[in-house]
Amino acid sequence: MSAAFTLKLLSLECIQAQEFEGDEPYLTLNDVRVWEVGRNEHMHQFPKQPNTYSAVDFASGRKLTRLGWENMQSFNPAHYIFEKRTGELVLSLWEADRLNADDHIASTPITLADSKGGTITAMLNGDGASYRLTYRVEAE
Predict the structure, then answer these.
(1) β pairing state of 42-43 and 52-57
(2) Judging by beta carbons within 10 Å of its beta carbon (0-12, 13-18, 19+), is residue 66 exposed, middle or buried?
(3) Domain limits of the chain?
């Protein structure tokens, strides 16, 4: 049996939104949705509209809006910590579409070996979008 590890999501930043008005991104871990932008909210690199933000800080429960950092509603830091994981995980970024199939932006594999890397930043680029995901893997 392989050793267990913990994955901690730290932040997600929009570098280039796919859609003009902003994206409706979500993250999956092994095909299970673990985070999604709030209802009627968007992510965009330049958050000019209300309910739009450019970054999410999963560690402190904040989002970066046009007015600065604001607290996320009903934040629970435990929702972004995944303990006792083994083998290879696949963390994927998607962009929700109402009329078409959701767009897969990119994925990154995560394993116990990543625990030697400290804080990890993965660029998730695809389908016209670019996001910076930061996370940490810790051996248990």
Answers:
(1) parallel
(2) middle
(3) 5-139
The pTM assigned to this predicted structure is 0.94
Q: Cα–chain-centroid distance for residue 133?
A: 6
Which residue reads 């095909």 in tokens? Answer: 31
Pairing of strands 81-85, 89-95: unpaired
In 3-state terms, what secondary structure has residue 18?
coil
Q: Check the CA dihedral 54-46-16-96 and report its sign.
A: positive
What gap in Å lies between CA 126 and CA 131, rounded to an integer?
9
Overall CATH class of domain 5-139 = mainly beta
Average pLDDT, the chain: 94
**pLDDT tens per residue across span 59-71:** 999 999 999 999 9
> b vs e for 92-118, b when ≥16 Cβ sit within 10 Å of the residue's Cβ?
bbbbeeeeeeebebbebebebebbeee
